[in-house]
């Protein structure tokens, strides 16, 4: 019997997987927004951070779905990248899309930190 199914995982882990995929999707949508906005929003450093955030979120979610112990390492890294991405998005000013992205990143960072066993 496989234990890599939703009913065999903790509620917290299932929520973290959802948060990760949600954050990845929102980051990707927000990258398009940033490229359209131009200026500070479109700077390579900012776009690169958001792309990296979307990728690490996806990697983290997949590790949890596979049930591999390495998810503690990916979740730890994901929490940190999400935290950085949230800060970057918040620093872009009072833009609803950026605030939405920052919120998704913070929610993901919180659940990933818990899954990583870190504080």
What does this structure look like?
It is a single chain. This protein is mainly alpha-helical and 119 residues long. It has a single domain, classed as Substrate Binding Domain Of Dnak, Chain:A, Domain 2 (Up-down Bundle), CATH 1.20.1270. The chain has helices at residues 11-37, 44-66, 71-90, 96-116. It starts with 10 loop residues before the first helix and ends with a helix.
The SSE string, one letter per element, is: HHHH
> What class do helices, strands and sheet pairing give?
mainly alpha
Question: What is the highest CATH level, the class?
Answer: Mainly Alpha
Query: What distance lies between the first and last C-alpha atoms, to the nearest angstrom?
Result: 33 Å
CATH architecture level-2 label: Up-down Bundle
Number of E strands: 0
Specify the biggest β-sheet: none
SS summary, helix count: 4
* CATH fold group: Substrate Binding Domain Of Dnak, Chain:A, Domain 2
β-strand percent reads under 5%
Q: Which residues form runs of ≥5 with pLDDT under 50?
A: none
């Amino acid at each position: 019997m496989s234990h890599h199914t939703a009913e065999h995982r903790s509620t917290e882990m299932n929520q973290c997987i959802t948060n990760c995929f949600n954050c990845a999707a929102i980051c990707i949508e927000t990258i398009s927004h940033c490229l359209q906005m131009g200026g500070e929003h479109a700077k390579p450093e900012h776009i690169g951070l958001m792309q990296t955030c979307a990728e690490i979120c996806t990697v983290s979610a997949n590790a949890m779905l596979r049930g591999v112990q390495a998810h503690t390492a990916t979740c730890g890294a994901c929490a940190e990248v999400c935290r950085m991405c949230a800060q970057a998005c918040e620093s872009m000013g009072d833009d609803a899309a950026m605030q939405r992205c920052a919120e998704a990143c913070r929610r993901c960072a919180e659940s990933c930190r818990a899954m990583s066993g870190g504080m």
